[in-house]
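During the first year of the project, the team set up a workflow for recording each protein of interest as an amino acid sequence followed immediately by a discrete structure-token representation. This format lets reviewers and collaborators read both layers of information side by side without switching files. As required by the reporting guidelines, we include two representative entries from the current panel. The first entry is reproduced here exactly as it appears in our internal archive.
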Amino acid sequence: MIYLDYQATTPLAPEVKAAMLPWLDHFANPHSPSRAGREAAAAIEHARSQVAVALPPHGDVIFTSGATEALNLALRGVHSDGRHRIVTLVTEHAAVLDTCDWLEGQGSEIVRLPVGADGLVDLAALRAAVDERTALVAIMLVNNEIGVIQPIEEIAAIAHAAGALMLCDAVQGFNRMAIPDGPDLVAVSAHKIYGPKGIGALWKRSDVTLEPLLHGGGQERGFRSGTLSPMLCAGFGAAAALAVAKRETDAAHVERLWHVALDALGPGWTVNGSADQRYHGNLNLRRDGLDAARLLAELRDIAFSLGSACASGSGRPSHVLRALGLRDAEARASIRLGFGRYTTEDDLADACRRIRVAADAQQRWVA
């Protein structure tokens, strides 16, 4: 199988697996005062420091079960007297949009801003929406479906000018690029950076206060109750350290792969969203008349996507593609190819040539 679904998840790095294996047998509870417990706790703190290096300074790393929990903790945990508005984008991940729906039912005011055909926020519209009633602005760094990079520094500045906080879902950008200055809260995930599933983190600026989402023993610095897994924490830390060390080489490799893919696919395709202001490891594109679901079924030994893994199987066109102004037929003619550290140029070129041949065959059949 040729794996081209790096936005859904990434392969586990061998170095990460090696860091995790010792903790498979070292079963002590890291919250226990025993010697074995203290050893496990020390491993977690080492992992925390490794993750922190990849995030802004002057903040705290709170381990969670994943980015979904981290985003819930941020959205539901921020309280600001007299401020009940949250401003976000219609193209955000379901973990943000669905939580905002829930908060709206609890009395919060939710402003869901549109994006342009390029997938980018209109900063003037954002500035008009963020006022003295706003507690939080929640906008992702790199869109998980189309790879578009939002201007996070400018967004954070607009939030701060109105006295609001800024939450950045950095899952798809974490360690693929530096986290821009400005956010007060940043959600990240291990399995998008060649680490294990089941662990993520919320970074918060040191002076930001949060209400806990999970109540119990208060193990994770009072913000998140529950026993931490030393094995998962060690894996996350190793993945973060490795990604920092390989950031430049990974970026150069992805840039080469972007051009390999476009060359092999040939003409007739349109990139969805901005082709310039985006992460080039995410190639979301469409072809007129293509039945993307049929294409996916025909090429079962190539792993690619029709959109977000979280929305797969719903039968509905992507909410992100519809937000760009695409018709349903155009959205259903779109595919997402994701590639990264372990994708070879030969495999990618081969997969894209086969996608092109299958798409050509569909077009001949329709004609």
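The second entry, processed by the same pipeline in the following quarter, appears below.
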Amino acid sequence: MVYFLFQVREEIRKGYEPKEAVVQALSKVGKVITFSALTVSAAMLSLLLASFGFYKGLGPALAIGIGVLLLAGLTLLPALLTVFGRAAFWPIKNRVVKEQRSEFGSRS
């Protein structure tokens, strides 16, 4: 989710409105976040093979928790970022930054 937050902030700095920035960021990192969460959930479910009983019970609970966090991260967080916009990143000022060309290699 941190990657998603930084991506939204970067899109806002490029000049997009908060709603457009959330859409752009989610289209770029949505798949990455989803597959990361699914991978970690599968790893937690592998605890079902553990011989110690506490770990057997812990695995499915953690996998469900990660699934709930995934749903919140892909639905609630974008909605909150859309509503709060630039204020969500307070006290950092999100000024629109124009891309600057590098002076490296240019002749003066």
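For the second entry, the following points were noted during internal review. The first helix runs from residue 2 to 13. The chain has a mean pLDDT of 86. Both points are flagged for discussion at the upcoming steering committee meeting.
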